[in-house]
Amino acid sequence: KLITESQLLSDKLKRGSSLPDVIRGSKYYPSFIKKMLIKDVHQNHLVRIFSEISRVYQTRVSNRIDWAKRIIPVTLLVLVAGGITASYAVIVFLPFVELLKMLGSPTL
Question: Which of 27, 56, 87, 95 has the fewest CB atoms in 10 Å of its CB?
């Protein structure tokens, strides 16, 4: 969707539309990119703007990867350890409960 939107944006710019008008009409570009492109468009700073956009998104991706590196091992440990503990509890205590039921019944 973003590639198609970018191609449409390029076609509109080639036809002579202004960048702010084309960007405002975009549905798929994030608001951060729209604001950055509209902000300094008349000052011919598009290279600086795109480098800033790439830096921001690179930082976001890096932060999310770091978060995943910290959270996934802990989550897997808790799930696996919890599953093993629950299985052990069922295996050990289910026969014990059955034994107690048999001992408590009036007939053998």
Answer: 27
Q: How far is CA 79 from the centre of its chain?
A: 21
Torsion sign over Cα 96, 97, 102, 105: positive
Answer yes or no: are the C-beta atoms of 13 and 22 closer than 8 Å. yes
Question: What are the pLDDT digits (tens) for 28-86?
Answer: 888 888 887 777 655 677 778 888 888 988 999 999 999 999 999 999 999 999 999 99
- The angle at the Cα of 31, spanning 25 to 37, to the nearest 5 degrees, equals 75
CA atoms of 37 and 50, how far apart (whole Å): 8
pTM: 0.56
Q: Judge whether 37 and 49 are in contact, CB under 8 Å.
A: yes
> 55 burial class (0-12, 13-18, 19+ CB within 10 angstroms)?
exposed
Q: Which two tokens stand for residue 103?
A: 């001992």
